[in-house]
Each structure stands twice: as C-alpha cells, then as structure tokens.
What does this fold into?
Amino acid sequence: MAGEREAAALAAAIDEARLWQRHLDMARLGATPGGGVNRQAFSPADGEARRLLIRWAQELGLAASLDPIGNLFIRRPGREPQAEPVLTGSHLDSQPTGGKFDGAYGVLAGFEVLEAMQRCGMETRRPVELVVWSNEEGSRFQPACMGSVAFIGARPLAELLAARDWEGMTAGEALEAMLATLAEVPRRPLGFPVAAYLEAHIEQGPLLEAAGVPIGVVTGVQGLHRYLVEVVGEAAHAGTTPLRQRKDALKAAVSMIHALEGVMADATDTVRFTVGRFDVAPGSPNVVPSRVRFTIDLRHPEAEVLARLGGQIGPLCQAHARGCAVTVTRLSAVPPTRFHPRIVSLVRHWATALGLPHRELLSGAGHDAMHLAAVCPAGMIFVPCAGGISHNEAESARPADLAAGARVLAACLAELAAT
Ligand code: GLV
Ligand code: MN
Ligand code: MN
It folds into this structure.
C-alpha cells in the first residue's frame, strides 16, 4: 500500500503553474469572444480538445484509447496489469456560453496527477486511467452524461446515438465525424470493471467561496429530471385570425410555464426549475405560432419530491393547452446519489492531512460521478469558483485552489491505486 509519505510526496509534486497553463491552453479551443468556451459535444472543437490532451499524453509516454461512444482514456499502467484500474476524469464538452473550468478542471487535474506520478517514478499496484466522458453537458444531445451512461450500461448505445440535436443531426453522425479526426487512436470496447472513481470539479455554486474554504468534500448529488414539452397549435394569419379562433402554441406554452412556476415554488427555495430552451416555429412576426418545443430541468435532493413535482408536469401542461396538442417526454431521470463512504472519508482524510480547510457539501450540479456511483465506489472533490458563477463565460477559479484540489486528488488516487 502506498505509504502516507508516498501519497503526500505525490501531492507535493502537483505543479500549480503547469496546471494553470494547461487550463489556458485548453481554453483556446472553442474560445468565445466573451472569454469563455463553446465546445459542444462531438463538435470540431471537442475533437481538437481531445487531440491536445492526446498529444500531451504522448509527450509523457502514456497511451490513449477511445470507446464506441467516444469516451477517451489515458492509461498509466500499474504493477498488476490485470487489476481493475482506478479512474479519474470529467468532461471537455461545454455549454454554448460555457467557462474554462467546468469539466476541463477535472480532466486537467487528473492529467496533472498522471504527470506527477510519471515525474516521481511512482509505482502503483493498479493502473490509473484518466477519462474524458462524452457529452456530459447534455446541451446539444440528450441525455446529459451520455458517455458515462453508456459506460455503465444504463441505456443502450444505439438509443443514445440516435439522439438528435436541435438541427436534426444525430449524436451518432456527429460522433462519427469527430472520430474520423482521431482515426489513429486505438479503440476499446464499451465499459470495463473499475476499482474506484474520483472526479475533481469546480463547485459551480457559492458555498466554498463564501466559507473561505478551498476543498469541498462532496457527499452526493441532488436528483435531476429532464423533460421535453412539445406544443402543436395551428399556423394562422396574424392580421386576419380572430384571437378566439387561434390555436397559438406560444401563448399556450407561456401559460404552461407560468402555471408550472407556481407549483415549483417552495418555501425553502430548494426546488430547481429551469426552462433553458424554447423554440418557436415557424418564427415569423405575422404568423400565429404553430409549434413550440421547450425543455424542463427539474432538480431536488429528495427523490419523493422530484417524483411528486415531475408527476404534475403532464397534467398541468394539458390543463393549459388552449386547444393545442401537448406531448411531455421525460428525457432522463437520475435519482439523488450518495457517494461511497470510503471515498468521502478518503477525501476528508487527505484534505485534513494536507492542511487544507474543507467542508462537506451536496452537489447541485449533475456529474458523471453520479453514474459511476452505480458501478463502483465513487466520489468527488470540489474547489471554489468566483462568485459561484458557472455555465457562464465569466466562470473563473484561482490557480491556488485548483492546485489544492489536485493535491487532494493525487493523494487519494495514490492510495486507491495501491490497494
Ligand atoms: C451539468 O452541467 C449540470 O447541468 O448539472
Ligand atoms: Mn461539469
Ligand atoms: Mn456543466
């Protein structure tokens, strides 16, 4: 087993400046004029980001591989090649107006640990693998966390690849185009046994910064449901059609959202209810809208509350249809996750041992770790981000905090890979 001293030495080998520079280099790919990134899943920028990581891995002498959903793995062998690997990582896809750190931090912190292991000549019993999960954001293709969902076998690959983006392109077509630019990377089958999974991420909320604490020991993730509501009315002339004769899909959708907003409000402000996408067709000033599609993202820490609120969406939308036809489709339903007590204790132990102030917290955001938790002991480490701002081009984090999280990650991975 890696002694405490060896794990602590690895933590000390984390290089803050190198880790920071990698964030800046990665953020050039898909950079937006507003200072953020737009690297949507399976886009050319997503492919470029993967190529950059593969090049860095090659420079360290580490091998890359890709599975059928495009999850990218960088493997550092262990003493026992057959031992189940320890996995760490996150995602490189982003929101359309995303930041430099959401996802990229977990990938780059994991890479920094591999580099530190290489430079220290550290020998681990288990292999350690860095993973870049495909389409974590679920911005372009539903469901979110497509790569980890496929990896754990929660949904069939063919069903996931059939998902269409808002322009009608399938995830399978977009993935194929991206993989064509990575033709030289060896392929591997989907899914394999994992000894443990640990993911580093910015908090994406305000708690750590407000508490002045660099490390979040994440105990779990709140539950998350996503829905697509489609409202079909009738196109009509804006100048001639009396209001009472219209089947206006837009007005129906607005009244549905208004009614839902009333039901979702709770005294403790715990429910998270978001309509993040709203498409109107045909989208002409003088045509009564014939079709609206909108998404609902609904989250709560308690499964019963989520089920109760989710169950009200269909009936409420029907009640406010105003003569239109309504279809409500549940795109995904992830129950609340509790991370494995052994991983939570390990993160707490190493934050303490490295002298880093820490606090426990539940993740408001969804992460691939919540899916891995179904197949292996899993957990997460959070670091603060400025103002708790995320899914925003202004997202930012301090180099020292990023390095602190990577140090905790390094020590935990060393210990997990030793046992
Ligand atoms: C992930 O980005 C989420 O929406 O929680
Ligand atoms: Mn993320
Ligand atoms: Mn995100």
